Fold this sequence. Notes:
Blueprint (H helix, E strand, L loop, with lengths): L2 H28 L4 H18 L5 E4 L5 H10 L5 H4 L31 H14 L6 E6 L6 H12 L5 E7 L2 E2 L2 E2 H5 L4 H7 L4 E5 L3 H10 L5 E6 L22 H12 L2
Parallel strand pairs: 1-2, 2-3, 3-7, 6-7
Antiparallel strand pairs: 4-5
Helix pairs in contact: 1-2, 1-3, 1-10, 2-3, 2-9, 5-6
Amino acid sequence: MKLGELEIQHGLLEAVRKAKLRLLKMHYESGVGHIGGNLSSLDLLIYLFHRVLGEDDRFVLSKGHAAGSLYVALWSIGKLSDSDLQQFHKEGTKLSGHPASGWIPEIDFSTGSLGHGLSLAAGLGLGKMLMSQSGQIYCLMSDGEWNEGSNWEALIFAAHHKLSNLTFIIDANHLQGFGTTREVANLDSIANKFRSFGVPTHEIDGHNLLEISQCFSESKRGLNAIVANTKKGSGISFMENKMEWHYLPMTELQYIRAVEEVSKQ
């Protein structure tokens, strides 16, 4: 194993483990659900914020119900404090259940009404191109979100304008609010649909940091898509691939069990 691979295996794996424990604590103490979709996206967000995003880059969280994983990723790089996270979902908080813009530079847009993030990201990308500004735009989306027609309009827009600075990442955990993505509105193969628009598309294991690293090293710039196959509730045995964890908050016993499982990873 090469030195860089060792660093990923040890340094980033530990960062993910700590972030997962903090995410569980934050959601348990606030009594808030949506933990499943947060866990499916956490590895991707930790890698993005620790290894990819530069000063001129921007990030848009289109699947706004994964706000918890975004806040914890920002906490893991020192942009948010423990006291900030303790206010998650509380009265008057800046850390609402879906991201709210206007208070830290890392959150450009209020998101969570699904289907809006890619349009916003494409607009940022075109603006940078018109003003000859450097930097890549990264947009994290859900797979169920592609039921929204606005995403396909944004894809047409991005391909037509040949945006040279947009990467959209699909957290493909194959579950959405009322069933599997195949049952609700089957889009397989979504990667091939992106390719039909002329968008280079990678397909990876969204929980394998080595695959994530290799993918981003090959697709740092230009218009491209990443379909990251993930598991809702990743890393927690009783949550993995269970639709109900799109919604449920944890009981005390469930929280204790989840912490025990993550601590052993």
